[in-house]
Amino acid sequence: MRLDNMLLAEGVSGPEKGGGSAAAAAAAAASGGSSDNSIEHSDYRAKLTQIRQIYHTELEKYEQACNEFTTHVMNLLREQSRTRPISPKEIERMVGIIHRKFSSIQMQLKQSTCEAVMILRSRFLDARRKRRNFSKQATEILNEYFYSHLSNPYPSEEAKEELAKKCSITVSQVSNWFGNKRIRYKKNIGKFQEEANLYAAKTAVTAAHAVAAAVQNNQTNSPTTPNSGSSGSFNLPNSGDMFMNMQSLNGDSYQGSQVGANVQSQVDTLRHVINQTGGYNDGLGGNSLYSPHNLNANGGWQDATTPSSVTSPTEGPGSVHSDTSN
DNA sequence: GGCTATGATTCGCG
DNA sequence: CGCGAATCATAGCC
């Protein structure tokens, strides 16, 4: 019945140890997915093997006991047959009773084995149980990308792969990370300000000089439209660089012509840097070009359409307590 | 032990 | 299908 099927599927019953491990591996692979983490799987397999061994030894024991008991009863009946007549029917009936009893015991064994397997599966296959924080290096790389693409923190499939490779995590983990990051950043920009500054400064070191000229040009050329500088509306137009959109690839592989494409993101970087240098932190007044507050206001990707519960418990994101280090 | 940070999952939406 | 939002469950810190 069903128990049998399940045990067979899990590689517990069925072929013995020789092919058993293969069956177990197949089961693990089938349920777990790809050959992602061999460590987990080998662990899982080991545990499964253990269960299988217990199951088989118990099963054997029961069978043996059943046989012994049957022969014992038979002997008893034979002895009794000397004193009273015993029909073959009666013997058959006795044997039947014994077998039924033992098979019900076997049933219980199977059931408990199934339970054990289920627990094992939930323990090992539920990824949430084995959550591990990414390495410091990995989060650093991810953060670098995130903050240097703050205007559009949606890495392309290629970029995700690249990041995944760099961080030695899977692409879906990268997606998860960015999903979490975006939402958590948006939820409380103030909390991430420090981090943003940190990474912005870090990337700025490498990127700023490459783009600074371009940005300055951009700004000096259009002093009348500060909003264009604020670049808040990343989600939309971005007109220019949308067409060239090549900001992905490696995040910082710019070949001459790409500079334009990267300007947008670099503006973010610079904004943070400027912020850090304490230039505009008092901009709360309203015309602060680069305050994240402003950024928030003009509907970027983090356009918080639901200000309801946010009401930043901390000070507003605008009040960046820049450590006035300069 | 409670708290926060964080990775993963789930669900609804377009 | 990718994303946002809510949620779960563990890690790590005090």
UniProtKB/TrEMBL annotation:
Cellular localisation: Nucleus
GO cellular component, one term: nucleus
Region described as Disordered: 218-241, 295-326
Organism phylogeny: Eukaryota, Metazoa, Chordata, Craniata, Vertebrata
UniProt keyword Transcription regulation present: yes
Superkingdom of the source species: Eukaryota
Keywords of the record: DNA-binding, Homeobox, Nucleus, Transcription, Transcription regulation
Protein name: PBX homeobox 3
Domain Homeobox: 125-188
PROSITE patterns on file: HOMEOBOX_1 (PS00027), HOMEOBOX_2 (PS50071), PBC (PS51978)
InterPro entries given in the database record: HD, Homeobox_CS, Homeodomain-like_sf, KN_HD, PBX_PBC_dom, TALE_homeobox
Species for this entry: Serinus canaria
Sequence similarity: Belongs to the TALE/PBX homeobox family.
Annotated ranges, domain PBC: 1-126
PANTHER family in UniProt: HOMEOBOX PROTEIN TRANSCRIPTION FACTORS (PTHR11850)
Biased composition (Polar residues): 295-314
